[in-house]
Write a structure and sequence with these properties.
By secondary structure, this protein is of the alpha+beta class. The protein has three domains: 2-64, Uridine Diphospho-n-acetylenolpyruvylglucosamine Reductase, domain 2 (2-Layer Sandwich), CATH 3.30.43.10; 71-193, Uridine Diphospho-n-acetylenolpyruvylglucosamine Reductase, domain 3 (2-Layer Sandwich); 213-277, Uridine Diphospho-n-acetylenolpyruvylglucosamine Reductase, domain 1 (Alpha-Beta Complex), CATH 3.90.78. Helices cover 27% and strands 24% of the residues. The chain has seven helices and 16 strands. The chain has a five-stranded antiparallel β-sheet with strand order 6-7-11-9-10. Strands 1-2-5-3 form a four-stranded mixed β-sheet. A three-stranded antiparallel β-sheet has the order 13-14-15. A hairpin with a 2-residue loop joins strand 13 (226-227) and strand 14. Helix 3 (88-98) runs antiparallel to helix 5 (178-193). The chain binds flavin-adenine dinucleotide. Residues 14, 44-52, 66, 84, 109-112, 114-116, 118-119, 121-122, 160, 165-166, 195, 200-202, 275 line the site of flavin-adenine dinucleotide.
Length: 279
């Protein structure tokens, strides 16, 4: 198993901030993963780091990142089996090439399949858990299969406990044609291309039932508002952009400020979608 020491959090997260991670462990198979989980006890699981921000201090909590061996994509009757380490980009491209329809709405969402499942990533209308039939997970009991109907997933919440590592999942997809899937993917990719560029974690807050978080932040006059190197995007107010010099402290302060302003102005409590990981 590869163990990488002293990794800068800036290198493994899309927000590009935070301190140094003491150790990242990369198990190569399920046996190694289970042994590692038992040995470590407490740990954090890292996928592509596109929804994760690490504290500015040294992160002593061990980090597990699944190795390449968890990156398989295999056809199964009625869809695909994919490993949690597969990137969403590769998975969507694979479906397009094979003419498999059903997950076009995931086009342009960065990160890994495992991270997407944990977050139930997707659009406001659909989440990836909607098209999953079962998950293979590792936890203190070993490796087991969880059927989707036994998982309490919800908007931006895959319903998986943080002490559980998602190993793979089965996706329910339908055979179509390469051209039809390519056409269906386009509007999603175009929407993503219009989003803010730069270091970010995508949407910082979940959308409240009443109104999208970005609209509330915009109406509160916070577009362009800055703390240190962290700024509310002028293009999409639910994005915080790191100008390259932001600390996690800047981002956390800006998040607190936005939440306070939205609470005062609209009486709505915003909840973070991004995961802020402490020491
Ligand atoms: C520019 C940009 C645009 C974005 N657009 C969208 C969007 O349209 N819709 C959307 O939903 N999200 C969006 N996101 C957020 C993010 O890309 C998704 O949430 C993504 O699915 C996270 O995947 P990841 O591998 O990067 O997860 P990470 O950030 O690495 O982890 C996220 C969470 O998942 C857990 N996790 C990761 N892998 C596993 C695993 N194998 N087993 C158990 N837990 C695991 C982590 O512990 C953490 O709690 C966007 C982000 C960016 C930067």
């Amino acid at each position: 198993m590869r163990v990488i020491s002293s990794v800068r959090a800036t290198e493994v997260t899309s927000m590009h901030c935070g301190g140094t991670i003491e150790s990242i462990y990369e198990p190569e198979d399920k046996g190694q993963l289970c042994d590692l989980m038992k040995a470590l006890g407490d740990f954090h699981v890292l996928g592509g780091g596109t929804n994760t921000i690490f504290d500015d201090a040294t992160i002593t909590r061990p980090v597990i990142r699944l190795g390449k061996e968890f990156g398989v994509i295999e056809p199964i009757p009625g869809g695909l089996l994919a490993g949690a380490a597969v990137s969403m980009k590769r998975l969507v491209s694979h479906c397009t090439r094979q003419g498999l329809t059903g997950m076009e709405f995931m086009a342009g969402i960065p990160g890994t399949f495992g991270g997407a499942l944990f977050m139930n990533a997707g659009t406001p209308e659909e989440g990836i858990m909607d098209i999953v039939s079962e998950l293979e997970v590792a936890d203190a009991c070993g490796v087991r299969i969880l059927r989707r109907d036994k998982i309490g997933y919800a908007y931006r919440c895959g319903g998986i406990s943080p002490r559980t590592v998602i190993v793979s999942a089965k996706l329910m997809l339908t055979q179509s044609t390469k051209d039809a899937v390519r056409q269906a993917v386009k509007p999603y990719l175009n929407k993503k291309r219009a989003q803010p560029k730069g270091f970010s974690s995508g949407s910082i807050f979940r959308n409240p039932v009443e109104t999208p978080a970005g609209r509330l932040i915009d109406r509160a006059g916070l577009k362009g508002f800055r703390v240190g190197g962290a700024k509310v995007s002028e293009i999409h107010a639910n994005f915080i952009i790191n100008d390259g010099n932001a600390t996690t402290g800047d981002i956390v302060e800006l998040i607190a400020l936005i939440k306070g302003r939205i609470r005062e102005r609209f009486g709505i409590e915003l909840t973070e979608e991004v995961r802020i990981i402490g020491q």
